[in-house]
Design brief:
This protein is α/β, with parallel strands linked by helices and about 575 residues long. The protein is built from 22 helices and 8 strands. InterPro entries: GNL2_CP_dom, GTP-bd, GTP-bd_ortho_bundle_sf, NOG2_N_dom, P-loop_NTPase, TRAFAC_YlqF/YawG_RiboMat.
């Protein structure tokens, strides 16, 4: 505290002269006489407002552009009043029917007749209210907690497994949150189908193809790069929460396991395995939220669509044989013949009879067990053993290809460093040549980047790494990032093996002790020497050590013998020598 001595007082104790920094005497303030103190702080004309509305209106629906700083101008002025829907009240309920002599009014049903009853009822409801049992809070829990939502979509039926209710809610109520599509299980469909779906869905929201696997994953590196970009975008926040939303059995928990490179969430090929949402740390500033499966109600979906999307557990179906005919309609006959080793069938009952006889699913007196066989077929359908895929509905393919190319070019400008080569997807299911014909087309994957683009990508990623992400182990990402890195290691191993075979082996015994004279040709040989081959092979476990000692045991160690037995043994040995 600043002090400037003591004040001077008179006989009565009043301060005559105050000390330094303690005076209360203030000079009279004077405001400058100006007209601006009585006018508007900021004035904008109609022309500026219209130009701003036009420029913003074209970019509001663009998911690849983000508004970093909101303008001081109220955003409600930019909304077009003409777009508001007109209320057709007079057409639906005329004035005469409502207020005229022919008016028919229904008496409202009220729980309470007087104000005292209403007050007592509200007080009782407030005492009994529990936040945990409120369904309205539980339904929007993940969307409220997250800054970024990931809609996991099944690659075989992307449109059917989209949660459009969640998309509309985020678009209207939470515009500040980002939505991204993940086309999961892309190893079950051909690569040209994934390119078409990614090109179609990326017009609405950023879309990434993904294959969830701890060892051989695809799209993991690009997803982590995208998460880092969002963390840099929201650098003012301490942390970012990413929620995974989608239909049951679309692989939300397995995506989180691939990002962490270990089993964090319980995974099963049946719906309803994840029952409670979980909070998982990926980095210091990025957190993941695993959400149970969502099935939004819709009038368009039939009972067969709900069952074939994997929403219901097949064990709970009373008549599973009713859902086999739609599978026979959707899947090609050649694939069913190959998977179940059949020649031909007349109808779905004949199809079930033949499979029951081959698999031995029979009841008493040799009758086929149709219900268990149909459950077995439905399980094969959900687990991807039956080859099947859906094509995007496009009227003009040429226009669609042009739009996809333009969209890819825009993505490369904006989402820098997040690119995917769909040729590296390891497709596990075997398709016929008719379905794989389009794999040879040049539109199959994104154009390969030049060396300059790769350098810019690496520079951008190095700039994006903040101090918070330093604790994240980057070796784990390199160890199980994408199939691109895995294929590179295999190719490098092959080259090293070839080079080892070409080098001649010389025995040290036959080599002469006398040094060979150095010629001029030796310098030329040394200059032509090939550069050292590099590999991404890490010195971990079996790759480095000759034998993997898993439990840190000495396998050559012998068990200890009893001391009494050893004494007897040595006595016998001494007696024999004597």
């Amino acid at each position: 505290m600043l002090k400037g001595g003591k004040p001077i007082r008179n006989e009565k104790g009043k301060i005559i002269k105050s000390a330094l920094y303690q005076s209360r005497e203030v000079t009279v303030g004077r405001v400058q006489p100006n007209r601006r103190w009585f006018g508007n702080t900021r004035v904008i004309g109609q022309k500026e407002l219209e130009s701003f509305r036009e420029s913003l209106g074209g970019k509001v629906d663009d998911p690849y552009q983000v508004l970093l700083k909101q303008n001081k101008l109220p955003m409600s002025l930019l909304a077009d009043a003409t777009k508001v829907a007109r209320m057709h009240m007079v057409e639906t309920e005329p004035f005469i029917d409502t207020f005229g002599p022919k008016a028919q009014r229904k008496r409202p049903k009220l729980k309470f007749g007087t104000m005292k009853d209403m007050i007592s009822e509200t007080n009782n409801s407030l005492e009994k209210y529990d936040e945990k049992s409120d369904q309205s809070l539980i339904s929007n829990l993940v969307t409220d907690w997250t800054e970024e939502a990931r809609d996991s979509v099944f690659s075989k039926d992307p449109i059917g497994t989209r949660c459009k209710v969640v998309e509309q809610y985020i678009k209207k109520e939470a515009k500040h949150k980002h939505l991204i599509f993940l086309l999961n299980k892309c190893d079950l469909i051909p690569t040209w189908v994934t390119t078409k779906w990614v090109g179609l869905l990326s017009k609405e929201y950023p879309t990434l193809a993904f294959h969830a696997s701890i060892n051989n994953s695809f799209g993991k590196g690009s997803l982590i790069q995208l998460l880092r970009q969002f963390s840099n975008l929201h650098s003012d926040k301490k942390q970012i929460s990413v929620g995974f939303i989608g239909y049951p059995n679309t692989g939300k928990s397995s995506i989180i396991n691939t990002l962490r490179s270990k089993k964090v969430c319980s995974v099963a090929p049946i719906p309803g395995e994840t029952k409670v949402w979980r909070y998982i740390t990926l980095m210091k500033r990025i957190y993941l939220i695993d959400c149970p499966g969502i099935v939004p109600p819709s009038d368009d979906d039939s009972e067969t669509d709900i069952v074939l999307r994997g929403v219901v557990r097949i064990e709970n179906l009373k008549t599973p044989e009713d859902f086999v005919p739609p599978i026979l309609e959707r899947v090609r006959k050649e694939y069913l013949k190959r998977t179940y080793n059949l020649r031909d069938w007349n109808d779905h009952l004949d199809f079930l009879y033949q499979i029951a006889q081959k698999s031995g699913k029979l009841l008493k007196k040799g009758e086929p067990d149709i219900s268990t066989v149909s459950k077995m077929i439905l399980n094969d359908w959900l687990r991807g053993k039956i080859p099947y895929f859906t094509l995007p509905l496009v009227e003009n393919e040429n226009d669609n290809n042009e739009n996809i190319d333009e969209n890819d070019a825009e993505k490369k400008k904006i989402l820098k460093g997040v690119e995917q080569e769909f040729n590296n997807i390891h497709v596990t299911t075997e398709f016929l040549q008719d379905d794989l014909k389009k794999d040879e087309s040049p539109d199959e994957s994104t154009t390969k980047t030049d060396e300059k683009d790769e350098e810019e990508k690496t520079q951008h990623l190095s700039d994006e790494k903040g101090s918070d992400e330093k604790d994240f182990d980057e070796n784990k990402i390199q160890h199980s990032s994408d199939e691109e890195d895995i294929e590179k290691t295999h190719s490098d191993q092959k080259t090293t093996n070839k080079s080892k075979k070409e080098i001649p082996i010389v025995n040290n015994k036959n080599r002469k002790k006398r040094k060979r004279k150095r010629n001029d040709s030796d310098d030329e040989v040394e200059r032509i020497k090939e550069p050292r081959l590099k590999t991404n092979k890490q010195k971990i476990g079996v790759q480095y050590y000759e034998t993997a000692n898993v439990k840190n045991k000495n396998r050559n160690k012998k068990p200890p013998q009893d001391s009494t037995k050893l004494e007897k043994k040595f006595k016998k040995m001494g007696a024999k020598k004597n």
